[in-house]
Amino acid sequence: MDRLKDKVAIITGGVAGIGLGVAECYVREGAKVVLTANHNVDGGKQAVEKFGEDKALFVQQDVANEESWQSVIDQTIDKFGKIDILVNNAGIGGTNSAIEDQSLEDWQKIIDINLTGNFLGEKYAIKAMKKYNDGNGSIINVSSVAGLIGLPLNPAYSATKGGTRLLSHATALQLAQQKVNIRVNSVHPGWIDTSIIPDAYREQIVSTIPVGHMGEPKDIGEICVYLGSDESKFANGAEFVVDGAQRA
């Protein structure tokens, strides 16, 4: 308990699935959380009711929109006064198709949300951490095992998750070389049991996981607790794979 006491975290896509799992772990450990989502407004309201208005804030956000990021930062500062942690979690799966059949529109949409959204999150969180938190903080970019190996029928998704991986490396190195105490790491989930997993494919998916079951959202939440806490003060520019030994 209290591993994140007095810390303030923004968690994008934080009202369902992995994002909500992260939020639950963060509140348990004493953090104040700002949860964002673009479409799931009801989920945001329910999360705030669950955690309490003194511990949580919901902001509707389009992560690919720069003004939307400015609004999230402003509302976070207005309510909690600072930002210690950013968890760039929001993302979409995209469409399964061969690359020659993928439309530019579909490609651009997933790039905008999954990769540009993370760039904007880093940009505005770093500015706010410098201004309101003495240049201290932790940025956690939720990538995927698909950022380490290719998905043959989802090239856009793999491209965004691989891009997020190297964005994390580059930003971590820049800040470290500048002697700015903001760490940047990436988390790479394998198959996590959320509502986006089609029931028809569950058995087939589980058969590919060496430990014999999918992970839970809190499995990602727990590694994010570590990365958001001072326990991980020397972890920077690193990749944390949580996949039940699938890549082992």
TrEMBL record:
<dbReference type="InterPro" id="IPR020904">
    <property type="entry name" value="Sc_DH/Rdtase_CS"/>
</dbReference>
<comment type="similarity">
    <text>Belongs to the short-chain dehydrogenases/reductases (SDR) family.</text>
</comment>
<dbReference type="InterPro" id="IPR002347">
    <property type="entry name" value="SDR_fam"/>
</dbReference>
<dbReference type="Pfam" id="PF13561">
    <property type="entry name" value="adh_short_C2"/>
</dbReference>
<keyword id="KW-0560">Oxidoreductase</keyword>
<protein>
    <submittedName>
        <fullName>3-oxoacyl-[acyl-carrier protein] reductase</fullName>
        <ecNumber>1.1.1.100</ecNumber>
    </submittedName>
</protein>
<dbReference type="InterPro" id="IPR036291">
    <property type="entry name" value="NAD(P)-bd_dom_sf"/>
</dbReference>
<dbReference type="GO" id="GO:0004316">
    <property type="term" value="F:3-oxoacyl-[acyl-carrier-protein] reductase (NADPH) activity"/>
</dbReference>
<dbReference type="GO" id="GO:0008206">
    <property type="term" value="P:bile acid metabolic process"/>
</dbReference>
